[in-house]
């Protein structure tokens, strides 16, 4: 296998990566580094956690002229956390060239700080599309002399509706620059973008590139919507690992679930796009340092995030599409380490499992919700470990004397004292649990029909009409609307009234009494990869029907 030096990298860079502990280049690095060094445009596809960042960062760093103050490289990333992380990676790879300036530019951070950084001269700018555009419009960022532009997680930027923003940024760059796109997944839309903006690109796809990573053990659990929390707490009790990321569908669900986990004694916090940026960064840092063990996140954390401690990914809510699944579980099992992914599947999501398995490219084993017996056995193990580890405590001998004294004075056996202390150390909580979480019954053929009848009987009048916008130039069909919404909100086909597809938006008749939870889930729907804008057009409002029309720019 070739070393980094054989790829054409300079000795100073080779020694930096050696210091970071990189022994051999990963397959994507082996192919993309020489291609980028020769100036070619690149579409790079490789599994999650296989070092795509260094694959573009190292050749870029080598080509930068630190004596010029121009911005020579621009990297776009879909989320703020990722922009920051990629920026940190660049900085660590640039250790041998301290005069080289790398600047993160993303929303939620003060403009002043960014502007003074840009004024001083940033050779590499790493940012999210929204904030980069703001700086272009204010005239505080000049990319007219750019040599290279990278779109990290290119497909996600299109999914998030950033296509126009990306094109707007590209329009400000010189014609003869190098462009590279990287991701672990490349749906067809990205091919079109590549065709339009890349000159004769080299397509690099490492073997099994778009599949889920080989180093993650994948399992799924059949669980009813009702029992997800119980199932999760049992999983938390029996799995051994370090840190965990739990993916849920909505921002509100991140808060609710994190709170529930905290009340059960776990160090858990929510991560979603509505939180203040400082809070978001604190949360990711706390996970890195071990101050937190569980992050409950929306898909804002699905892409790119590289936290070594994450040993488990739980898909508490099934992802929107198979690509999201591949990226979510890729938060563990990185850089050759092993990881575990567990997917919760409710009965009506069963058919999505097959689709996910197909794209993921690997079998997902079924596991059952841990039984009371399994949980109790783990508790007994942990109890034994606690005893052993506390025997090494510096206070052990002092307490031992006290216990001895108590035993003589009160004439009780040591074992009774030990048991009494164990009760105290568990706060008097019930140590053993009983009963099992019921697994959902698989739907019997006739059952669905019967349950449907009362709903079907409801009069059709009094429905509400919802307006859906999926972005112009995006063709949708009634079947796509029903498919996506039925899936997302758990609606039945019979819930849908008339569907009128228009040029600007689509009107859908739905029951007037959509519960809050269903509405929120619907509002998070994607139709063929694009987030929709859902709002009430006419009729009795479901609660909180208004929603911002565009995903928040970062
Ligand atoms: N050649 C190498 N040897 C060892 N470790 C490496 C090497 N290259 C990168 N790494 C480490 O591997 C981890 C994952 O790298 P990176 O975040 O670039 O993956 P990625 O391919 O971009 O994944 P994702 O698709 O999830 O964004 C990082 O912690 C990085 O430091
Ligand atoms: Mg990455």
Written account of the structure:
- The chain is α/β, with parallel strands linked by helices.
- The protein folds into 4 domains: 4-205, Rossmann fold; 213-371, P-loop containing nucleotide triphosphate hydrolases (Rossmann fold, 3-Layer(aba) Sandwich), CATH 3.40.50; 373-426, no CATH class; 464-536, RRM (RNA recognition motif) domain (Alpha-Beta Plaits, 2-Layer Sandwich), CATH 3.30.70.330.
- 40% of the residues lie in helices and 16% in strands.
- It has 20 helices and 20 strands.
- The protein has helices spanning 11-19, 27-37, 52-63, 80-93, 111-120, 129-138, 154-159, 163-171, 188-197, 228-238, 251-263, 277-289, 322-329, 350-360, 372-390, 396-410, 414-425, 447-457, 478-489, 516-523; strands spanning 42-45, 73-76, 102-105, 124-127, 148-152, 178-183, 202-205, 216-222, 243-247, 268-271, 294-297, 310-315, 339-345, 365-367, 464-469, 499-501, 506-510, 526-527, 530-531, 533-538.
- The strands form 4 sheets. The protein has a 7-stranded parallel β-sheet, with helices on both faces. Strands 10-11-9-12-13-8-14 form a 7-stranded parallel β-sheet, sandwiched between helices.
- Helix 5 links the parallel strand 3 (102-105) and strand 4.
- It is globular and about 90 Å long.
- The protein starts with 10 loop residues before the first helix and ends in a 16-residue tail after the last strand.
- Adenosine-5'-triphosphate binds next to helix 3.
């Amino acid at each position: 296998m070739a070393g980094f030096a054989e790829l054409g990298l300079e000795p100073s860079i080779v020694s930096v990566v050696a210091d970071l502990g990189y022994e051999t280049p990963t397959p994507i690095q082996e192919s993309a580094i020489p291609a980028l060094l020769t100036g070619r445009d690149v579409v790079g596809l490789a599994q999650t956690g296989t070092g795509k960042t260094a694959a573009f960062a190292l050749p870029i760093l080598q080509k930068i002229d630190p004596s010029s103050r121009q911005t020579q490289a621009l990297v776009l990333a879909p989320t703020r956390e990722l922009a920051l992380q990629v920026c940190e990676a660049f900085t660590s790879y640039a250790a041998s060239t301290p005069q080289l300036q790398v600047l993160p530019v993303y929303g939620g951070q003060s403009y002043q700080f960014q502007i003074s950084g840009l004024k001083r001269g940033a050779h590499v700018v790493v940012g999210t599309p929204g904030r980069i555009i703001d700086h272009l419009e204010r005239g505080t960022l000049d990319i007219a002399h750019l040599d290279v532009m990278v779109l990290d997680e290119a497909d996600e930027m299109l999914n998030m509706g950033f296509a126009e923003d990306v094109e707007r940024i590209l329009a400000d760059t010189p014609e003869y620059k190098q462009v590279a796109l990287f991701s672990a997944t490349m749906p067809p839309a990205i091919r079109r973008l590549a065709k339009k903006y890349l000159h004769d690109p080299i397509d690099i796809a490492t073997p099994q590139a778009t599949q889920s990573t080989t180093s993650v053990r994948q399992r799924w659990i059949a669980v009813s919507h009702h029992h997800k929390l119980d199932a999760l707490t049992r999983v938390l009790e029996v799995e051994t690992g370090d840190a965990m990321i739990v993916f849920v569908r909505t921002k509100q669900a991140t808060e609710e679930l994190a709170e529930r986990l905290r009340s059960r004694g776990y160090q858990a916090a929510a991560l979603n796009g509505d939180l203040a940026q400082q809070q978001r960064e604190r949360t990711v840092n706390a996970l890195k340092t071990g101050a937190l063990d569980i992050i409950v996140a929306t898909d804002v954390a699905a892409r790119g995030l590289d936290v070594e401690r994450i040993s488990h990914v739980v898909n508490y809510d099934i992802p929107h599409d198979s690509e999201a699944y591949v990226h979510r579980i890729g938060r563990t099992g990185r850089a050759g380490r092993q990881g575990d992914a567990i997917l919760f599947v409710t009965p009506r999501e069963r058919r999505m499992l097959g689709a996910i398995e197909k794209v993921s490219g690997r079998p997902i084993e079924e596991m059952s919700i841990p039984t009371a017996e399994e949980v109790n056995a783990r508790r007994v193990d942990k109890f034994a470990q606690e005893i052993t580890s506390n025997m090494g405590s510096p206070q052990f001998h002092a307490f031992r004397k006290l216990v001895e004294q108590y035993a003589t004075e009160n004439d009780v056996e040591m074992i009774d004292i030990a048991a009494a202390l164990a009760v105290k150390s568990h706060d008097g909580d019930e140590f053993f649990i009983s009963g099992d979480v019921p697994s959902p019954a698989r739907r019997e053929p006739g059952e669905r029909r019967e349950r449907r009848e009362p709903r079907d009987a409801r009069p059709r009048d009094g429905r509400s009409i919802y307006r859906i916008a999926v972005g112009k130039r995006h063709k949708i069909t009634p079947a796509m609307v029903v498919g996506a919404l039925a899936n997302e909100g758990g609606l039945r086909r019979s819930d849908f009234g008339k569907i009128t597809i228009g040029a600007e938006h689509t009107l859908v008749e739905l029951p007037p009494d959509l519960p809050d939870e269903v509405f929120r889930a619907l509002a998070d729907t994607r139709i063929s990869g694009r987030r929709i804008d859902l709002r009430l057009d006419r009729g009795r409002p479901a609660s909180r029907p208004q929603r911002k029309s565009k995903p928040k720019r970062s």
